[in-house]
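Quick one, tokens below. Sequence please?
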């Protein structure tokens, strides 16, 4: 796992042994209300095409392009891609903001707030294919953590902030461990 930053931030990394940060998306109420983008399809959203905030589940080599829209929870899985160019993501109650699992993402000028983790970058269980995410000019705030990255994944933070908002929370969680 790799963490790269463009500036020299002041924060403390705490390594948490074999922490399972798997998305609870399919156990949460948001799983039933999400727009599903599946089987290699692409969905482009902006404030006109998506005037009401909605959750999105993107899977199986599909693409979600967010251009200035406001959404709820976003989950990207199984080789899919998330591109954000300006946007606001507010998680559903009790959920993470953006989960990128075994996939990739490019995030620019986004504000993400969550009751859980604002940006979770991880992998499928028992897989060595992590996720790759670049986040620039963005702000991630979560009650548990602003961002979390697990083994085999890469998160590039460029001119971005990650903040834990609750007592005992973390700005950035780096979780390693074997399979």
């Amino acid at each position: 796992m790799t963490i790269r930053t463009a500036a020299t931030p002041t924060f403390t990394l705490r390594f948490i042994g074999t922490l399972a940060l798997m998305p609870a998306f399919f156990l949460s109420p948001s799983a039933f209300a999400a727009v599903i983008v599946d089987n290699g399809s692409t969905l482009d959203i902006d404030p006109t095409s998506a005037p009401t905030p909605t959750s999105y589940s993107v899977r199986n080599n599909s693409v979600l392009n967010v251009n200035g829209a406001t959404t709820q929870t976003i989950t990207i899985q199984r080789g899919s891609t998330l591109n954000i160019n300006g946007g606001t993501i507010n998680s559903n109650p009790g959920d993470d903001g953006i989960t990128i699992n075994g996939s990739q993402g490019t995030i620019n000028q986004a504000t993400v707030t969550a009751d859980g983790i604002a940006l979770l970058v991880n992998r499928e269980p028992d897989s060595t294919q992590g996720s790759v995410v670049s986040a620039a000019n963005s702000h991630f705030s979560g009650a548990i953590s602003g961002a979390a990255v697990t083994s085999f994944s890469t998160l590039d933070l460029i001119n971005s902030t990650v903040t834990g908002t609750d007592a005992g929370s973390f700005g950035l969680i780096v979780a390693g461990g074997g399979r």
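Residues 4-31 have pLDDT under 50 and may be disordered. The two ends are 13 Å apart (CA to CA).
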